[in-house]
Design brief:
By secondary structure, the chain is α+β, with helices and mostly antiparallel strands. The protein has helices spanning about 10-20, 55-60, 95-105, 110-125, 150-155; strands spanning about 1-5, 20-25, 30-35, 40, 45-50, 65-75, 75-90, 130-145. The longest helix is centred in the middle third of the chain and has 12 residues, at about 95-105. The chain binds flavin-adenine dinucleotide. Flavin-adenine dinucleotide binds near residues 52, 53, 54 and 119.
Length: about 160
């Protein structure tokens, strides 16, 4: 298996195509990670959630990490890790345009709303007014791609 680096463009294309990953945040030296859907723009990700632990934690510490991957086999996969800064998009004039943009992009993703809603229903406290739109400003992106090594795959690998 060969592992190589992905370009920034390839990383952004993967984020845009998958729209699903794991969001990690931390509070008082304790990590927390959950699966989320997101919509992607070149410099940011947009997400939707209802109030809960991840929003509370990201409010107190906006430095977050998102990981996405696509695994075809143990030797054929791509993975992108993003570090970024959480910013909430409240229903105020200042954020109106960004919030509308987030909603428009997220609407294209099927079931994006249901995931957040289902989570809130599990807690028995869904409140439409407490729905949270947010964005994650991308600060650093790295990507790795694994592919089969043609030498290893050969029926007669060269002796070293
Ligand atoms: C495919 C997929 C897509 C999702 N997309 C979204 C999305 O776009 N927006 C969104 O808000 N939510 C989404 N969810 C649900 C999300 O992963 C969280 O479960 C949910 O947001 C609640 O997180 P919270 O921090 O508010 O938890 P809270 O309701 O505050 O609960 C915190 C407690 O529940 C546990 N917990 C929370 N979530 C999970 C989990 N997923 N698995 C195991 N334990 C958990 C925590 O460890 C902690 O003990 C998605 C889930 C899946 C599987």
């Amino acid at each position: 298996m060969l592992v190589g680096e992905m370009s920034q463009q390839e990383c952004k294309e993967l984020l845009a195509r998958l729209g699903f990953g794991r969001l990690a945040c931390a509070q008082e030296n304790r990590p927390y990670i959950v699966p989320i859907y997101f919509a992607s723009e070149p410099d940011r990700l947009y997400g939707f959630a209802t109030m809960g632990q991840k929003i509370e934690w990201m409010r107190s510490n906006p430095i977050v990490c998102v990981e996405v991957d696509e695994v075809r086999s143990p030797i054929d996969w791509v993975s992108v890790v993003v570090t970024g800064r959480y910013e909430e998009l409240p229903e105020t004039d200042e954020y109106l345009k960004q919030r509308e943009r987030a909603e428009a992009l997220l609407e294209k993703r099927s079931l994006w709303w249901e995931a957040g809603l289902a989570a809130a229903q599990t807690r028995g406290k869904f409140d439409r007014d407490r729905a949270v739109f947010y964005c994650i400003h991308l600060e650093e992106i790295t990507g790795r791609r694994a592919s089969p090594d043609p030498v290893e795959a050969s029926p007669h690998p060269a002796r070293t």
